[in-house]
Amino acid sequence: MNNVLTRHDWKGVLKHIFVNYNYVFSFILLLIVGRFASDQFITMGNISNLIRSSVFIGIIALGMTLTIISGNIDLSVGSILALAAAISVSVFNSTGGVLPALLAATAAGAVLGFINGLFVGYARVASFIVTLATMVAYRSITVQMGKGGPLLTDNDLYFQNLRWIGYGRLGGPQGLSYLVIIFVFLTLIMWFVMNKTRFGRYVYAVGSNERAAKLTGIRVPGVKVAIFTITGMLTGIAAFLYAARFGSVDVATAGRMFELDVIAAVAIGGTMMSGGRGTVQGSFFGAVIIYSIDAILSAYQVPAFVNDFIKGVLILGAVLLQKALDRTSDD
Amino acid sequence: MQLEMKNIYKSFGAVQAVVDVSFSVGEGEIHGLLGENGAGKSTLMNVLGGVLPPDSGTVLIDGEEVTHLTPIKAAKLGIRFIHQELNLVNDLKVFENLFLKNEIVTAGVYLNKKEMIRRSREIFKRLGMEIDPTVYVRDLDTSRKQLVEIARALLFDCELIIMDEPTTALTNDEIENLFTIMRGLKAQGVSSIYISHKMPELFSVCDRYTVLRDGRFVASGEFADINEQQATEMLVGRSVVDDVVEKTNVVTEETVLDVRSLSCEGHFQDISFSLHRGEVLVFTGLFGDGRGALAECLFGARPITGGSIYLHGQELNTRSILNVIKSGVSMVPRNRKERSILKDLSVKDNLSMAYFTSAHKGLVIHNREENRRFEEQRQQTNIRVGNPNDLITSLSGGNQQKVIFSRWFGLESDVFILDNPTQGIDVGAKFEIYQLINKLVETGKSVIMFSSEFPEIYKIADRCIVMYKGEINREFSRSELNEVDVMYYATGSNRKAG
Description:
Helices cover 77% and strands 3% of the residues of chain A. Chain A has 331 residues and is mainly α.
């Protein structure tokens, strides 16, 4: 493969770009498809809307990317979102402050993720099992907190202090949504973590070959705990934004099935499910692509029950494409 | 069965494992296949067993050409393979292993356990082995596992048995038993190919021999026409002995590492030795001697169950690998693919990883510093690489291993543990690695190397410890070193007499 690159250099470079950034091409392709349905599809406003609707899935997907690169999976993110959001709402109602609500959600997410990490890292239980168990357990705690019904934010306080985060835009009504700005900002931070820090290298190393990673002195259990804690923290931040956007948390349904969309976003973004490879920027686009598919299908007025089927097919197609591309680039 | 293999070629990437090898085995013949580790014996047999497809060449069985061999096809032709590594499923019982993929069933689906157990007992009895077929394989010791492996091959009718070092873990009585069985099969017209390093065994049971060296055919003939001395000469080859790396003695009196009655239950017991500054100490032995576990224990990769390690007079805490690294011990593990290579990471990141964990200050990685360090190391170890950001898997085996060496060179460790560092790399790269090891000791480092290849030991060792069944059996100084004596103690021959 190395020889091919030097012999047909420009071809190699093009291939390299396509193999590594195909999610960008997929996104552009979707925009073009959407353009046929509506003139308004390719406008700053619409694209910004697409990104905004993918914020909750997207922020969690940033963390899930680390989890999957390390060769693990986290099924509990939907339940962590609900519990962290419920805690965030309670704290907001009693303090009225945005900062306490944000900190409470982030801390709750971090603690819940940390617990996952302890079991995966130190007790060495398969992450699939650990997070399957905590998915159910965390949800149960949330439902008991809300006694089955929705947890509402105090109405006056919400409109005074919190709603601006969920709906506000930088630079007036036509400006950029705060949610989008936060999403982009977190993506940049996570890009930095994965590309410029030692920790990022450890995540790739653990997912690539755990035994070899251990023999270079990496404390593998500690890295795993950190990964799950970070995933929990990001889910906590998403939970806070969720509360800010909707003003309430339905304890039984909030975040339910989120884990599937999140994992799909990471897969579409080019992260290998077997670990070792992947990028957070890919997952950013993966999340946006999922919501673009939704938007296009509704623009074409596809009935809702067909919607999920098409989505499923597209996700499978995207992953198959990636596998094919990876094979050609590998050997 | 009459077997003929003609002009077989097989290479793995840049490594030519088998080059133009031809040999033949007659009906009812026991054929000894000789060669050092890496001479291509196992590769050749894997081609015959259908495990590896040859790059070119033909296989003739009873005069007819056989193409597209697979393990299943080989089995149908009556070829049975007793592998060097144990290919048993630990989580199944002995009889289930014996009949794996050949289960006896009634009514098409229902497993006839009674019959399988009965036939297992029968085969063990015939082979004079005392093994209960209803226990789990994981509960057997290595020697029993090897016997099960042999029994599995002999359970069904066959015409050719390939035995790849079947006796490494067996006792003398068990070996004698095996030979009786082999002679019995021979009388029935069954042919065997017998791979072993042990000359007395080869001479006592085999009819004809073929010698391979560096993947090439060297000689074939009757064992009756040669003696052990001649066989060893063909095996080792004059050229290899002459090709000595310039070895200067830089050993000092200063003790760097002191190991006192180190034990690891189930692997080795009561290992004591000391390592001097500037010394290359080589551990050798045969399969099942506990060397692999010893290497891991010295580095903190496996918990020790007794004894202690002193580095510069201070007890070394081996509870954490990172602590061992920071104290000044580096390790190049065996089996590069499994234990060293981070296959999804670049050449540069693979090289830097140990530096990141133990010496890097601050969280953030600076590209310029990384590139500078990479360039420094690349020149020192002469890694041939196009773009350091390419995946490490794009390099040849030898270059990959040089990257793994470089991983540790920047750390200024005092002790380097090298566990089979030249495994699976070509001769040229091996030579470069020997030079690197010499360079290390010349700069005042100390090296503990684990190796099973005598030519290599002869090239670089200042001292050599031979292990047998988890114990130190004999220590040789450089001047005492010769292959026959090393083999004698590695096989535990000295112990059986008493």
